Every structure is written in C-alpha cells, then in structure tokens.
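Quick one, tokens below:
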C-alpha cells in the first residue's frame, strides 16, 4: 500500500510540476486572444470614427453645394442678376468653403461670384429700359453661356467631397 501511495504522490508531484507551465501557457493564450480582440476593436472604432467624421461634414458640405447650384440655377433662369442679394446669399451660404473643401472649390465659387457680379454690373448699366449696352452684349452672352455649363462642372468638382462610395 505504501507503494501505491508513493506512486500517487509522485504522480501528484509530476502533475503539479506540469500544471504550472500548462497554466502559464493557458494564461498566455487567453492574454493573446484578449489583446487581439482589443486590436480589432480599436481598428473598428477608428473606422467608425472616420465615417462619423465624414457624416458630420456632409451636412455642412451639402449646404455649400446646394447654395452653389441654387445660384447657378438662378442665373440660368433669369439670364441676369438684377440685385446684389443673390450674390450676398451665395457668399453667406458658402463662407465655409475654404474649411470644408480644397482650394479648387473656393476658387470656383469665387469665380461664380465674380461672373455674377459682372452680370449685375451689366444689368445696372442697362438703364431704366433694361437695354444692354452694345459693348456689353458680347460679355453678357459669354458669361451666360459659361453659366450654362456650370451645373455639370459643379457636380463634378464637388463629387469627390460628397461621394460616399469611396472609403
């Protein structure tokens, strides 16, 4: 019987000797899995933050885009700018253009403003009968034709800032 007790004591000591490394390996595996899951969670949070940032910008960018297209539509509909109000409205509603977009959008809106201001000047110089002076007819026609193409141009320029198909 003492042999069997000695045998079981040796077995217990051997198991105890293996138990410590086995526990260490299990803790290592569990730690690795937890760290891996934390890395995945952090990556997912970074992607979510990126999407939330783009969504937050979307509303402000759409306001600038819509104000730009509204101005172009006004010029196309009226073929002139009688008062300065539409120009002031364009500048007011697109004042964040340099913060929300690249320089090309800011320059483009500035160009719309300048051409719109020129149309307003031509209208103001037309007198009470609203007859365009002969020296302004060519310029007026060129600017009006230029505005005719601007809806598509504006959509293409703004697309890279408003397109969510790209990550």
């Amino acid at each position: 019987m003492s042999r069997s007790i000695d045998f079981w004591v040796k077995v217990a000591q051997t198991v105890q000797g293996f138990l410590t490394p086995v526990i260490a390996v299990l803790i290592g595996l569990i730690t690795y899995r937890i760290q891996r899951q934390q890395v995945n969670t952090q990556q997912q949070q970074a992607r979510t933050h990126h999407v939330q940032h783009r969504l937050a910008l979307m509303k402000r960018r759409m306001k600038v885009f819509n104000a730009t297209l509204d101005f172009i539509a006004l010029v196309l509909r009226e073929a002139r700018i009688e008062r300065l109000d539409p120009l002031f409205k364009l500048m007011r509603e697109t004042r964040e253009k340099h913060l929300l977009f690249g320089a090309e959008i800011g320059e483009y809106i500035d160009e719309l403003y300048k051409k719109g201001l020129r149309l307003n000047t031509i209208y103001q110089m037309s007198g009470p009968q609203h007859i365009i002076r002969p020296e302004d007819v060519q310029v007026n026609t060129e600017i009006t034709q230029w505005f005719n193409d601007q809806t598509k141009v504006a959509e293409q320029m703004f697309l890279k800032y408003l397109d969510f198909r790209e990550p």
